[in-house]
Amino acid sequence: MQKIYASPKAALEGVLFDGMTIMSGGFGLSGNPESLIPAIRDAGVKNLTVISNNCGADGFGLWMLLNNRQIKKMISSYVGENKLFEQLYLSGELELELNPQGTLAERIRAGGAGIPAFYTRTGVGTVVAEGKPVEEFEGHKYVRETWLRSDLSIVKAWKADEAGNLVYRKTARNFNPNMATAGKITIAEVEEIVPAGSLDPDNIHTPGIFVDRIIKSTINEKRIEKLTVREKETA
């Protein structure tokens, strides 16, 4: 099956609809699907539920969808430096399901693995556990968490071959591999596309069976959300 599409717009054609759930890879601004997010903004779909670690940063990434009032609900673990995210949540314009970061990652992984629920000690006795079943195992209480799945997962990888096998680079790997497995449709944007069979099988992070469509990324800014440097030592 031909998986390579000419543009973000072409790859998203026939996939988007109002009220859908979208998983978006990335951590801070590392590993964000920088090319697909503006195409979703331009498509104008609304009432979206978006699953992502955070929601971009001011003026970049998923912030674009927030600013366009396309997101109804965020399922995430970090509000971060995004002032618009904070403003919309506090004003009641945006629903927020806040998760401990490890729990969010495991809920996504469970969705991709076909595991509808699991137990974790994280969050027991806090607001995280409110309304959720709690059980005791070997003398410790555990809260039950449920899987996360999506209508569409958008991920950013370094390389793909024509079969859709993906390789991520360094910290851009983050949530992307788990999200690629948990979407009904997964679209990957990559910096480089190579012939099928040319990637070392031992270095493939996401097998092509999970990837439905591929585009070559049109935006690769790789911004740094907050730059911290050490003062130069005097001689």
Automatic annotation (TrEMBL):
The molecular function terms of the Gene Ontology recorded here are: CoA-transferase activity
Query: Which Gene3D superfamilies does the entry mention?
Result: Glutaconate Coenzyme A-transferase (3.40.1080.10)
Protein name, as recorded? 3-oxoacid CoA-transferase subunit A
Q: Does the keyword Transferase apply?
A: yes
| Pfam short name (any one) | CoA_trans
**Which key words are in the record?**
Transferase
Please indicate if the UniProt record lists Transferase as a keyword: yes
Q: Which organism is it from?
A: Acidocella aminolytica 101 = DSM 11237
